[in-house]
# Entry
Amino acid sequence: MTGAQKLYLPEVLKGLAVTMGHALKNLLNPKGMPVISFPEEKKDLPPTTRGRHRLMKREDETPRCTACMLCATACPAECIHILAAESADPDVEKVPQKFDIDMLRCVFCGFCVDACPLDAIRMDVPEIDLAGYTRESLVYGKEFLMNHDNKDIVANYNPPRPVVWTHGPHAKP
Ligand code: SF4
Ligand code: SF4
# Structure
């Protein structure tokens, strides 16, 4: 370190100058501040956003999943819990009797989606602000993952919306 750096005070003042510079810039131009008033305002999500899971269905409304456990095995957070049952369809060996995802443990890595050989699980529901009052409410079960609002949400999401950044360096005027 140079002598001036060893004194620390000039460096502290330099840091303060940077902070005050940003503060003044934002005060003079509040619209340029990279802030959104969540939850009233929500940021537009890029179409590639990895959101909440959903379980895909066959044409007869049964789950596409065959309870092969590959997703649960690939999951680093061990938050997928599947109970397999025999399928009534002779062409399908197994179905999930229970398929729970503990969203409080999920790290949104997408390994489960990559591991699935049947495209039975997707992470394309554009919900990222998952919240609840109890732990149990954030353990999503099979029925929820197959049905809950998925149709409307995904209908509005696919084809992907154009990327429109509402704030930050990519924001459009
Ligand atoms: S996204 Fe990752 S952590 Fe979450 S359930 Fe899938 S594999 Fe597990
Ligand atoms: S979602 Fe896919 S990987 Fe997971 S158990 Fe079902 S078929 Fe297997």
User: Anything to note?
Assistant: The two ends are 43 Å apart (CA to CA). The longest helix spans residues 9-28. The chain has six helices and five strands. Residues 74-77, 79-80, 101, 106-112 surround iron/sulfur cluster (ligand 1) (CB under 6 Å).
